Amino acid sequence: MKALDIITLVILIIGGLNWGLIGLFDFNLVGAIFGGDRSMLSRVIYTIVGLSAIYQAFAWKAMVRRWSYDEARRAGY
After folding, report:
1. With the C-alpha atoms ordered 16, 7, 65, 77, is the resulting torsion angle positive or negative?
2. Which of 16, 30, 52, 71 could in theory staple to 8 by disulfide, Cβ–Cβ 3.0 to 4.6 A?
3. d(CA 48, CA 20)
């Protein structure tokens, strides 16, 4: 599960950077790489970013417990 936590976090960071580029420079990096805003591949990427956000939102408490438990265990508590 920790791997999924990290993967979804990285996807959200990439999605956030893309939105920052759109807001600041009117440049859509995902659209530029994958063939435009409306291409099927771009839509798949946008869907993956959205699903990552949903996962992070609903699994937040479990992630905090999961990561806190491992840190406490490493510290010897």
Report:
1. negative
2. 52
3. 18
Residue pointed to by tokens 């956000």:
53
Location of structure tokens 């993967």: 7
* Residue 61 DSSP symbol: H
Tell which residue, 63, 59, 37, 48, has the closest CA to residue 15. 48
Token readout for 6 is: 């990290």
DSSP per-residue letters across 28-59: -HHHHHHTSTTSHHHHHHHHHHHHHHHHHHHS
Mean pLDDT by 10 residues, the chain (77 residues): 92 96 96 93 96 94 82 65
